[in-house]
TrEMBL record:
UniProt-recorded name of the protein: NADP-dependent succinic semialdehyde dehydrogenase
Family assignment from sequence similarity: Belongs to the aldehyde dehydrogenase family.
Aldehyde dehydrogenase domain residues: 3-459
Gene3D superfamilies: Aldehyde Dehydrogenase, Chain A, domain 1, Aldehyde Dehydrogenase, Chain A, domain 2
InterPro entries: Ald_DH/histidinol_DH (IPR016161), Ald_DH_C (IPR016163), Ald_DH_CS_CYS (IPR016160), Ald_DH_N (IPR016162), Aldehyde_DH_dom (IPR015590), ALDH_GabD1-like (IPR044148), GABD/Sad-like (IPR047110)
Origin organism lineage: Bacteria, Bacillati, Actinomycetota, Actinomycetes, Kitasatosporales
Any Pfam family the entry gives: Aldedh
Entry superkingdom: Bacteria
Keywords, sorted A to Z: NADP, Oxidoreductase
Amino acid sequence: MAIATVNPATGETVETFTPYDDAAVEQRLALAEDAFTAFRLTSFDERAALLRRAADRLDADQEEIARTMTIEMGKPIGAARAEVAKCAKAMRWYADRAPGLLADEHPEAADVADSGASSVLVRYRPLGVVLAVMPWNFPLWQVVRFAAPALMAGNVGLLKHASNVPRTALALERVFREAGYPRGCFQTLLIGSKAVEGVIRDRRVAAVTLTGSEGAGRSVAAVAGDEVKKSVLELGGSDPFVVLPSADVAAAVKCAVTARVQNNGQSCIAAKRFIVHAEVYAAFTAAFADRMRELRVGDPLAEETEVGPLATRQGRADIEELVADAVARGAVAECGGARPEGLDDGWFYLPTVLTGVTPQMRIHHEEAFGPVATVYRAESLDEAVALANDTPFGLSSNVWTSDAAEQERCIRDIEAGGVFFNGMTASHPAFPFGGVKRSGYGRELSEHGIREFCNVTTVWRAR
């Protein structure tokens, strides 16, 4: 895939970039190694001051960066502005809290004495150069949620971004540079996917984090494992949205629409499978299809647009194939199921609701990365939980119920990295984010995320 900015609303190639050759990659690796040697010795106060300045730069450049993201991958402009603001918020959150999150830990006095030591502490030290392999769907947020904690811990970062968002990648590199970070602390590598293995294997790279497809995760994990290097993976999701009889159905429908079409339906944590109890199935499904049908599809730079194009031509083709397979096997498209009229130049697809989905259909098991929802009827809580878990993924989940016992049951039994009750799954710097099963391993954000790329060091002193 060429490294290029291609506007998905028009199909126009805006700019093409020449990939870095081996010499350019070597130069940046050497620079990263040198930067870490010095940056690891900086204080939390020094790192926090830099990160706050980076947040200020994001605030100042919000409109420019938002437009860049929208032109590169098609998210509605309002959502793009919100993404920039969220990144600045996360930077300030880590700048404020990293000293406490990485403070020395002191074991119980009795355990220290039992070990024969006069004192014991646990210290968090940076690992070194961390490579981030990032996707296009949240081209700023996905990077910042790695970069902010990694830099506050004293690591330095190399970014291999998706090939269709090079301008966003370079914009973030510029933000860190203009914030005053020492040269080499954060660098973008304009390289193709085939060059990633060589970077992971380089002795100067200590760890790798990837957000992306299951296939990409397998490849990166295999190389990192072969090199015995730390890796964190956040992969696909096919999150359930469970609606039980005690739910506020109107509120659930309103949230369901946003949860499915956020980022044009291209979000790993977007609700994708709507599992609705028989008692409220008819009311929920009819209202949900009506609301999805009413969404405004169009130019993502227009303020009134609610759903923009798919980011790539192939992405739309994948969605079309999944829907066609389901309909051919008996599913019903309650709305959508086609390209919109009058938007022939871009990669648009109508918000779609499918009912009558069965395990024989591809969409039952595969992630639908676009504005397509599948709705299932469940006769009981047991059946709803079984359907929720009938997926190879386990990123997050949404459950609508006011019953405390049902909530406890879902916390216990739903196989996911998160359970969100009566609201939509969202990431926040204070809470750990990640999944189980084929959604990956490790955690981002919170104290768990900042500690992923630290050397957890036991310091034992004898009497």
